[in-house]
Design a protein that fits this description.
254 residues; alpha/beta; D-Maltodextrin-Binding Protein, domain 2; 2 domains; ten-stranded mixed beta sheet; two-stranded antiparallel sheet; 8 helices; 33% helix; globular; Solute-binding_3/MltF_N; Solute-binding protein family 3/N-terminal domain-containing protein; signal
């Protein structure tokens, strides 16, 4: 059930520079975002639903679209060619071209996914040294881990996380680095849940944010503040958690 999260601005001229926002994110990120099929530029998930509810209250159209890989989304955001990034961890590089909205959407733990039968001890990041892992192009798992991985780990980056899991099943990599919840629902949808186990020890736990590109003409302090207030209300009402649970079921039982 949709919930109006802010009071409408009926009868008033719009205070925002844009009546329509182009919004994109990581299309490989269920239950938050996913592409229903390869030929569609539509995105489904908890975040499109939440954004529609928030921006309906602000009388702004939220156009949440699949526009390419996560790496391409970040490039477009850097250039100001999209108006909002739906779901990103904070890094020093991204903070240079994104205005992050607080509060965070939620906190996301990342784990090591092992091919079943080929597990190895993982208690600290150094346990991954000498192994070959895989994850998505452009993925971040927090600034501290990103810095460590760049200097000490071998990670094969690919365009889809299914490709990473297939590489692991084929023995081409030793592990997959991916978020715990997203990995669980991806494996469940592909009926691969019996092929992998997740590490008990997390790699990192990071806040997931909405972020407005600094170079977007739609990005104003007033819009960010109104959006943040509506997001905080959604959190306090339990709406975000409800949408996440609803979309876990929707994605897994497609």
């Amino acid at each position: 059930m949709a919930v109006c999260l802010v009071l409408p601005l009926a009868g008033l001229a719009s205070p925002w520079p844009c009546e329509r926002l182009l919004i994109a994110g990581n299309s490989e990120y269920p239950p938050f975002l996913w592409q229903p099929n390869d030929d569609s530029n539509e995105l489904k998930g908890a975040l499109p639903q939440l954004l529609t509810e928030i921006f309906d209250g602000l009388e702004v159209t939220a156009n949440v679209r699949h526009i390419g890989s996560w790496a391409r989304v970040q490039k477009l955001a850097r250039n100001g060619d999209i108006d909002l990034v739906a779901g990103a961890f904070m890094t020093e590089e991204r903070a240079g071209y994104l205005d992050y909205v607080r509060p965070a959407i939620t906190r996301i733990p990342t784990v090591v996914w092992f091919p079943r039968g080929r597990e190895f001890p993982f208690r600290r990041w150094s346990d991954l040294e000498g192994k070959v892992g895989s994850t998505l192009i452009g993925n971040s798992f927090g600034q501290a881990f990103d810095d460590y991985a760049a200097n000490h780990l071998r990670l094969e980056t690919v365009r889809s996380i299914e490709q990473s899991f297939r590489m692991a099943m084929a023995g081409r990599v030793d592990y997959v680095l991916y978020e715990a919840l997203q990995g669980r629902v991806k494996l469940g949808r592909n009926d691969w849940q019996d092929q992998f186990t997740a590490s008990d020890q997390v790699v990192s736990v990071e806040n997931l944010y909405f972020a407005f590109p600094k170079r977007s003409r739609c990005n104003t302090q007033a819009l960010r503040e109104a959006f943040a207030n509506a997001l905080r209300l959604a959190q306090n009402q339990g709406r975000i958690d409800a949408l996440i649970e609803e979309n876990i079921s929707r994605y897994t039982h497609h």
